[in-house]
Amino acid sequence: MRDNLIKLNIGEVKEIKLKDYSTYKVGGDSLMIFVNSVKSLIKLLKYLNVNSIKYKVIGNASNLIFSDSGYDGVLINLNNIKSFKKYSNYFTVFSGYNLSKFSMEVSNMGYTGMEFSVGIPGQIGGSIFMNAGCYGSSISNVLYKVKVLTEDYKIKTLYNKDLKFGYRDSIFKHSNLICLSATFKLDVGNINEIKSKIEEYRLKRFNSQPLEFPNAGSVFKNPEGLYAGKLIEDLGLKGKNVGGAYISEKHANFIVNKNNASSKDIVNLISMIKKEVKKKYNIELKCEQEIVE
Ligand SMILES: Cc1cc2nc3c(=O)[nH]c(=O)nc-3n(C[C@H](O)[C@H](O)[C@H](O)COP(=O)(O)OP(=O)(O)OC[C@H]3O[C@@H](n4cnc5c(N)ncnc54)[C@H](O)[C@@H]3O)c2cc1C
Q1: Under a CB-based contact definition with an 8 Å cutoff, are residues 111 and 187 in contact?
Q2: 212-292 has which fold?
Q3: What whole-number distance in Å separates Cα of residue 287 and Cα of residue 293?
Q4: What DSSP state is assigned to residue 290?
Q5: Pocket of ligand 1 from Cβ distances under 6 Å
């Protein structure tokens, strides 16, 4: 398959170890294509669909649990298509752009609204898919519109209201749309206030999250009116492990890869937590992270 993909001449084709691409540092082998343009992406998708080859567009894989046995299809990486345009207070970026970098750049120009997202290690596309958020805000609060690629290879513009945003939810989770680029609408702010907000959030993150170990952020969504981390902590589960995967001592809604964990260790630890929470509180925790196999 690799040779056929190379022949398409649409970008770099690599045989990779998923471990090297996921923030959890788990996963077996896969093919990854770094497409070099939207035209190439369309050419690739047509080829994959005609040949019934499975695929997935990924961002920074900071919300994914790749399987130990790898991915027997093609992972599509949009990292090599990068652009950043400013028109008045509208900022358009391509999906492969790093969210934190974008947020720092617009913040440094004196625009407010993106401060919350400095420190979220995703790309723009993945973060819109997830409606990533924290500290009282989320992507849906600042996103104006997106360009998407539809299943029939058409490029369409969708506005915020069309994207069915919810808590860690968007239309992308329930469709095969690919997010190509995004336009954010930001307000001019006070640069000192923007900087101090960023510093406040950076410190909060540093003090509350186990950033010293590989992880993929919060494991579970918070049930309405409750905190998943508190439920897990109250069960005395902090520090419990399956193989090399541990429930963080610092934040009970984080699983950390402390000791060469396999993806199976992480998945089994997730099941164990769900079981305990269900038994004690009769609550079904919903996983925020996605298993890719
Ligand atoms: C230390 C740490 C802290 C974190 N803190 C937060 C936080 O505060 N708030 C928060 O919400 N999350 C947080 N996360 C989780 C994660 O960073 C976010 O969910 C992030 O937005 C995911 O972006 P990504 O590019 O890594 O997406 P990926 O994990 O690569 O992909 C996520 C999903 O998006 C899909 N996708 C990716 N790109 C596209 C595209 N262009 N078009 C269509 N679908 C696409 C993928 O197929 C996949 O289903 C944290 C993670 C870590 C490791």
Answers
A1: yes
A2: 3.90.78
A3: 16
A4: E
A5: 23, 56-64, 78, 95, 120-123, 125-127, 129-130, 132-134, 172, 178-179, 209, 211, 215-217, 290
**Distance separating alpha carbons of residues 266 and 25, to the nearest angstrom:** 11
Domain boundary assignment for the chain: 2-77, 84-207, 212-292
CA–CA distance, 208 with 105 (Å, rounded to integer)? 25
pLDDT, tens digit, 9 for 90 and up, residues 23-79: 999 999 999 999 999 999 999 999 999 999 999 999 999 999 999 999 999 999 999
Note if 218 is an active site residue. Answer: yes
Fold entry, domain 2-77 = 3.30.43
Helix (H, G, I), strand (E, B) or coil at 144: strand
Look at the block and give the residue holding tokens 């790898």. Answer: 70
What pLDDT digit, counting tens, does each position of 98-138 carry? 999 999 999 999 999 999 999 999 999 999 999 999 999 99
Instruction: Write the single-letter amino acid at 99.
Output: L
- Ligand 1: distance of its center to the CA of 33 in Å? 19
Pick the CATH number of 84-207 from 3.30.465.10, 3.30.559.30, 3.20.20.80, 3.40.1050.10: 3.30.465.10
Amino acid type, 271: S
pLDDT band at 83 (very low <50, low <70, confident <90, very high): confident
95 catalytic? Reply is no
Provide the pLDDT confidence category of residue 275 given band limits of 50, 70 and 90: very high
